[in-house]
User: Which sequence fits this backbone?
């Protein structure tokens, strides 16, 4: 042991303690700074535009009109659609993984899910833009337009880059999140309950359906919300495949039309924006997105807390 | 319901779920094979080590982007990982249940859910607008900030599972808290901290949005971190949307490099934590 | 008159991977009686009954050899569906496991609903009948909609028995059903077991030698995976043939 006096050890102890607390406080400060700074920089837009940013549907840089409603709707619709499609697929993956897959398949599946999650979004973007977009346009959108294009939702022309394509890409990106959470939850169904079902002569599906899923319901829901949060905040993949246009939804409701999201708007315009109101509007959009995703995240965590409290009963 | 049809329903569910799993996995193979097939044709030593040619011209490479990615990632890790680990230590070893501790934990979790573009806008407002020019420092700042919640959570978790007996043994030996934390707890938890940091590193390697208005892009070798810098991610984005055939091809080449980096880190992490899905209940 | 055997266990052996836990067990079990399985702690007895309802084979690495004849049909025969076996041979576990996401009534009829019975009135009357037969009806009739897990441990265990009985099995297997219960609930359960034997065969694992003596008609002593002795309870306890049996019963080991 060192022959330093207790005083020196105390000093080192305190230094370390302050270092550790300091770093944590730094994180807190930076987080708060995000809000403060975003609010401050969006003030020019707030004062000029007011509520118009949220409800206006015209974005005209030259005349300083910044209505972001189409972008907000693009964000919400694409994220909700993607999450909705991802849920049954993720559920299927999780049920296969926990109930039916042999060991080797489980290992492979978990590797694949991890890799799907690890692929950078800009790669999803370039793949969506150059490979999927023409395929979707010619083999999915065009035939649909030809057959049921009289329904406004599926009206032509078939743009490859569209809110439809963005939702599909987002679905793929959200699946790993929801499925890995669901797999964890289903795997932790208490075995006495599963045994109870089996002893009554239940099939694997019947066991999952009557005991596994009800038990995991809340957790799955929080996982879904987490996936939704991811979809809301996704930037690059969406920017590269959504077409970046205000056509949707006010000029046409067709899902085959190009659209915009909050993230694609910021990504596309912030670099070139010079007018403080323009910059301010974009930063205001970032603020709105931040608030939405924080609420979504908070909801997910609140649900998880309720679950763990319930299990202590 | 007769037994046979219950069995059949079970089988049907099995095949439907298998089908859904296959559907989800197909994009993975599709993306990787596309990246490999398209990117490999342009790979060459020249491609990897030379500067980009100006728009419209063929030739040149992505050398500066590779270099830039490494530099910015290193800078980001330089501040992101230590702060993350320290925060993790705080959450695991100090003030675990205090109000401040809960606030910090809550904020770290919230930070994990913040969209990457918001980090970019934050760094833009904080650094770029203040300094009035685009700089790689702002990019590294944003990316480092993104690493913090990942590293902090991984560190906290791997330290929490260190058995309390070991801490008490150290206390009984008269070892002061700071030394205890570092030499006892941290050294046992270092596996988890390492994998958490690696995963965070892989994550930011792919993040593009925070760099779009901070480090921007450049056609030159990085000569100062206080200037715009090229990165693989931004190169892929710029070149892919340019529409110019040769540039799109280069974007595929850069994608291949990026995917190789990210996938190898992930495989390395999986190898290091072999217990993940052991396949038993 | 020779009574036909309900269940005949013939040379049953079981393994967990390479470890053999049951060694060629053979027993002939008559209908409508209570059989106690006694013996020191270890996986032998639990494994044995899990081989009888084909739950042992669900464990990765588990293996079974030998025959188990229920009404002269080998439950391990290729053509026999394991699920069918489990409907005919019910099980109650050591720790009560009612389904917490289902009401008391739904718990009782859980197995029936799987079989496709939908008529609510029928299900309700079956539930009432079964709850009455386990002595639970009066205690819970005002709270039938409450979760199956909201009642006391002893009540939960009786609920699990009602659930198993609702399937109208030929045999019911009980794995130390009273080890997690208080003395009052234990007594109630032992009474119930005595009542049940007029309808079905009950095999009950117990660590409590006294319980075996009280409750059963036949007793099997299992030690280290082997059947040491099997016979009428009276005979086993008054004049055990095997010295090991005698030592266990008198408490000198285990």
Assistant:
């Amino acid at each position: 042991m060192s022959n330093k006096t207790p005083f020196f050890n105390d000093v080192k102890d305190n230094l370390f303690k302050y270092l550790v607390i300091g770093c944590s406080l730094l994180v807190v400060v930076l987080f708060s700074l995000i809000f403060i700074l975003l609010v401050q920089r969006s003030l020019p837009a707030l004062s000029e535009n007011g509520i118009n940013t949220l409800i206006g549907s015209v974005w005209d840089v030259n005349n300083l009109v910044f209505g972001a409603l189409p972008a907000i709707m693009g964000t919400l619709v694409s994220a909700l659609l993607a999450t909705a499609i991802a849920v049954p697929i993720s559920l299927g993956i999780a049920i296969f993984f926990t109930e039916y897959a042999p060991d080797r398949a489980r290992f492979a599946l978990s590797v694949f899910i991890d890799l799907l999650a690890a692929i950078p979004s800009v790669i999803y973007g370039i793949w969506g833009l150059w490979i999927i977009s023409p395929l979707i346009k010619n083999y999915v959108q065009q035939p649909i337009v030809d057959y049921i294009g009289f329904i406004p939702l599926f009206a032509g022309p078939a743009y490859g880059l569209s809110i439809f394509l963005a939702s599909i890409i987002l679905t793929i990106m959200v699946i790993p999140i929801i499925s890995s959470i669901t797999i964890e939850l289903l795997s932790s169904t208490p075995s006495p309950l599963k045994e109870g079902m089996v002893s009554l002569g239940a099939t694997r599906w019947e066991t999952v359906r009557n005991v596994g899923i009800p038990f995991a319901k809340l957790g799955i829901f929080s996982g879904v919300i987490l996936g939704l949060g991811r979809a809301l905040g996704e930037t690059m993949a969406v920017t590269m495949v959504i077409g970046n246009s205000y056509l949707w939804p006010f000029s046409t409701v067709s899902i085959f039309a190009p659209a915009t999201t909050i993230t694609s708007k910021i990504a596309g315009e912030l670099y070139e924006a010079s007018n403080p109101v323009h910059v301010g509007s974009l930063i205001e959009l970032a603020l709105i997105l931040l608030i939405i995703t924080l609420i979504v995240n908070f909801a997910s965590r609140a649900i998880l807390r309720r679950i763990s409290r319930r299990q202590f009963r | 319901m007769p037994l046979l049809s219950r069995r059949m329903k079970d089988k049907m569910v099995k095949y439907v779920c298998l089908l859904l799993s296959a559907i989800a996995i197909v994009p993975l193979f599709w993306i990787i094979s596309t990246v490999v097939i398209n990117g490999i044709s342009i790979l060459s030593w020249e491609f990897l080590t030379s500067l980009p040619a100006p728009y419209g011209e063929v030739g040149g490479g992505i050398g500066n982007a590779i270099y830039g990615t490494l530099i910015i990632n290193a800078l980001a890790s330089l501040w992101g990982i230590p702060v993350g680990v320290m925060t993790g230590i705080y959450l695991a070893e100090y003030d675990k249940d205090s109000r401040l501790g809960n606030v910090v934990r809550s904020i770290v979790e919230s930070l994990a859910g913040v969209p990457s573009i918001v980090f970019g806008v934050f760094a833009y407002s904080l650094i770029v607008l203040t300094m009035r020019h685009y700089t790689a420092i702002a990019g590294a700042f944003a990316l480092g900030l993104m690493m913090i919640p990942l590293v902090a959570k991984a560190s906290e978790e791997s330290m929490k599972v260190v058995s309390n007996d070991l801490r008490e043994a150290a206390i009984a030996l008269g070892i002061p808290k700071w030394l205890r934390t570092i030499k006892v707890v941290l050294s046992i938890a270092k596996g988890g901290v390492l994998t958490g940091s690696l995963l965070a590193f892989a994550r930011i390697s792919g993040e593009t949005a925070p760099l779009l208005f901070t480090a921007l892009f450049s056609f030159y070798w990085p000569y100062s971190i206080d200037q715009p810098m090229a990165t693989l991610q931004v190169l892929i984005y710029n070149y892919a949307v340019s529409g110019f055939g040769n540039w799109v091809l280069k974007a595929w080449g850069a994608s291949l490099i990026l995917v190789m980096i990210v996938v190898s880190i992930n495989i390395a992490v999986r190898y290091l934590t072999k217990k993940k899905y052991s396949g038993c209940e | 008159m020779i009574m036909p055997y309900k269940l005949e266990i013939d040379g049953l052996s079981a393994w967990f991977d390479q470890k053999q836990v049951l060694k060629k067990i053979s027993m002939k079990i008559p209908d409508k009686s209570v059989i106690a399985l006694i013996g020191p702690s270890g996986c032998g007895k639990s494994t044995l009954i899990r081989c009888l309802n084909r739950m042992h084979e669900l464990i990765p690495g588990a293996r079974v050899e030998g025959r188990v004849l229920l009404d002269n049909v080998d439950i391990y025969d290729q053509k026999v569906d394991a699920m069918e076996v489990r409907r005919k041979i019910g099980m109650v576990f050591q720790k009560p496991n009612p389904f917490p996401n289902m009401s008391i009534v739904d718990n009782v009829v859980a197995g029936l609903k799987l079989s496709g019975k939908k008529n609510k009135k029928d299900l309700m009357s079956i539930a009432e009948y079964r709850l009455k037969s386990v002595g639970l009806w009066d205690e819970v009739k005002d709270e039938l909609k409450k979760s199956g897990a909201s009642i006391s441990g002893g009540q939960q265990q009786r609920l699990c028995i009602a659930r198993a009985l609702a399937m109208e099995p030929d045999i019911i297997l009980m794995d130390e059903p009273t080890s997690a219960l208080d003395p009052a609930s234990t007594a109630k359960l032992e009474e119930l077991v005595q009542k049940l034997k007029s309808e079905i065969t009950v095999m009950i694992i117990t660590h409590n030698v006294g319980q075996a003596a009280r409750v059963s008609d036949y007793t099997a002593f299992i030690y280290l995976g082997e059947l040491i002795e099997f016979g009428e309870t009276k005979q086993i306890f008054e004049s055990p043939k095997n010295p090991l049996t005698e030592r266990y019963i008198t408490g000198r080991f285990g």
Notes: Chain B touches chain A through 90 residues (CB under 8 Å). Residues 3-40 of chain B form the longest helix (38 residues). Confidence is low (pLDDT under 50) at residues 276-281 of chain B.
